[in-house]
Specification:
260 residues, alpha/beta, Rossmann fold, OB fold (Dihydrolipoamide Acetyltransferase, E2P), five-stranded antiparallel beta sheet, 15 strands
């Protein structure tokens, strides 16, 4: 199992690294000390498992989980010194949780469960349901229910998209799907992220965004005007002047949201 260690306290990372390094079937692929660095490491390293501290600067462990693509997220083990967070993590469907201070025996039990889940996920055929003996609960989706719609979104930065930055969700004008990617359009820039539009809209929430086409969605606050075209389609003009097509399939939802 390829493992990423995330904790803002160096002694906690050192202990976890030392104990995990003793296990022959565990490979530590990286460490991170805050939420933004954790998200960057997950994107770069594609670990099988992330030991994820909950309380961290910038982004909490739960906020990091919210930003992940639900269908491809690694197994999550939340690590915390706070009981209420530990119980919350367990309820979220995380692979496990570790309540600080934990001992080597408690870590060993968590790793045993991870081994089983990792092996079964590797043996699972595409589209096949996971074995009932070890249910794979949707940790990312359940995290979103607890955290609620994201006010911020992680997008690539740099000439080659080698880093990540947080942008305000309210600054997003519209979203354009492109196969397994989504182009995120703001007033000043466009960011391309490897996500599905459906998963991104689930994260950002339906209060702010509405789908206007099978491959596009807009920020409701950015809609300036609508003009009928033909066969139920409409021409949508955003406040920026950008003109988009509103499909008749989504017309009733858009008009209902604007009236509401």
């Amino acid at each position: 199992m390829r493992v990423l260690i995330v904790d803002d306290e160096a002694p906690a990372r050192d202990k976890l690294r030392r104990w995990l390094s003793e296990l022959p079937d565990v490979q530590i692929v990286g460490e991170a000390a805050d939420g933004l660095a954790a998200a960057s490491a997950i994107a770069a390293q594609s670990p099988d498992v992330v030991f994820l501290d909950i309380r961290m600067p910038g982004l909490s462990g739960l906020e990091v989980a919210v930003q992940l693509e639900a269908s491809s997220a690694p197994l999550l083990v939340f690590v915390t010194a706070h009981d209420e967070h530990a119980l919350r993590a367990f309820d979220l469907g995380a692979a496990d949780y570790l309540l600080k201070p934990y001992d080597k025996d408690r870590l060993s039990k968590a790793v045993d469960r991870l081994r089983l889940r990792h092996r079964q996920s590797r043996e699972q055929a595409p589209g096949q349901s996971p074995p009932l003996s070890v249910p794979l609960l949707p940790a990312v989706q359940l995290a979103r229910r607890h955290v609620g719609p994201s006010d911020r979104l992680l997008v690539p930065q740099g000439p080659l998209g080698e880093g990540l930055q947080l942008i305000d969700a309210a600054a997003i004008h519209w979203l354009q799907a492109d196969d397994n990617y989504v182009h995120v359009h703001t007033a000043q820039s466009r960011h391309m992220i490897r996500r599905t539009l459906a998963d991104l809209l689930e994260q950002l929430g339906s209060e702010r965004f509405v789908r206007i086409h099978k491959s596009a969605a807009v920020n409701l606050a950015e809609i300036a005007s609508l003009a009928p075209l033909f066969k139920g389609d409409h021409e949508m003009t955003l406040r920026s002047g950008r003109v988009l097509r509103l499909s008749r399939r989504f017309k009733d939802e858009v008009f209902g949201r604007l009236r509401g």
